[in-house]
Specification:
alpha/beta, 11 helices, single chain, 8-stranded parallel β-sheet
Length: about 300
């Protein structure tokens, strides 16, 4: 069994290869059961384990395990550990262990870029990014693979994190600056991508410029929000999978209040990739893409690492 280090996993997943691999997997399809969630800690020391399996006709079975331990900060440890096991689907033989953190962060950014490729205006040059963490820091690079991104405005609750990312983006050829006024930065942008852990809306629909694209990556629990109800209900809404309607507070809270109908969703990422639903219909239309992640993306990434 081959073991891929973090660096080997990262090097095997350039966005120029990963984004097409995700698109092909969404077109081809795979079996991805709903994730298993187990609380295995104690009230004082909680630990949550997520198990995400998927398998495809290409011959592989994969399982990602994510362990989340919020109290690890007091132990000087990361709050999340993730591993990915890849098996031969026919024999069940383990063939590879891949770094789960790298797979998760890179496939998340790649999926958002894939949606932007299909929904944002082809002329999109200005990106406003909320969240300068592991996933957020990858978004400009993923977007640049599919859109002519030139300028990036970065906002983070930790200004120092924004400044560090802006410095890195500048070195890598972007025009980048730290956001001073979030409302102005949203109105300035052709695309807005949010990768935060916020529990209250950061983006107001009234701030969006006609024709812009809003990408919502955080809000993967019912309690989390990144955009207000106006942004969700008054624009063209797309989701990665139907699971988003069951997991994300950005969707669940407006649904529970009667402000949003499940039927308002125009299509999933699979339907977009298969040309089974409308995409952008005009230069003035605002599109919104809400993702919570899927094991399909993990399997596509792990297969690319091991099989090329």
């Amino acid at each position: 069994m081959k073991i891929y280090t973090r660096e080997e996993t990262r090097n095997a997943l350039p966005f120029s290869h990963l984004i097409p691999a995700l698109e092909e997997m969404f077109k081809r399809g795979c079996t991805a059961p709903r994730r298993h969630i187990h609380n295995i800690g104690t009230p004082d020391d909680p630990v949550t384990m997520l198990i995400m399996p998927a398998w495809s006709d290409a011959g592989f079975l994969g399982i990602k395990t994510v362990n989340i331990a919020p109290n690890n900060a007091s132990r000087s440890l990361p709050g999340l550990f993730s591993t990915y096991m890849l098996y031969d689907r026919s024999t069940g033989e383990p063939v590879a262990q891949v770094d789960g953190n790298e797979i998760t962060s890179r496939r998340t950014a790649a999926a958002s870029a894939l949606a932007a490729k299909l929904l944002a205006r082809p002329s999109t040059k200005r990106l406003t990014l909320l969240g300068a963490g592991r996933v957020g820091s990858l978004i400009p690079y993923a977007y640049r693979e599919v859109l002519p991104i030139e300028e990036v405005a970065v906002w983070d609750i930790d200004r120092a994190a924004s400044e560090r990312l802006v410095g890195q983006l500048y070195q890598d050829g972007f025009i980048a600056h730290v956001v001073e006024n979030l409302e102005q930065a949203v109105g300035w942008a052709d695309a807005i991508s949010c990768a935060t852990l916020s529990t209250k809306p950061l983006i107001k629909g009234a701030w969006l410029t006609p024709g812009s694209h809003l990408d919502l990556i955080g809000s993967f629990t019912p309690e989390m929000r990144e955009a207000d109800t106006n942004a969700i209900v008054n624009n063209s809404l797309f989701i990665d999978t139907e699971e988003a309607l069951e997991k994300s507070g950005d969707l669940l809270q407006p649904i529970e209040l009667g402000d949003l109908s499940r039927d308002a969703v125009i299509g999933t990422l699979e339907e977009l990739c298969r040309c089974q639903c409308p995409t952008r219909r005009s230069e003035q239309e605002c599109t919104v893409f809400k993702a919570v992640g899927t094991a399909l993306e993990d399997l596509a990434a792990a297969t690319l690492v091991h099989h090329g």
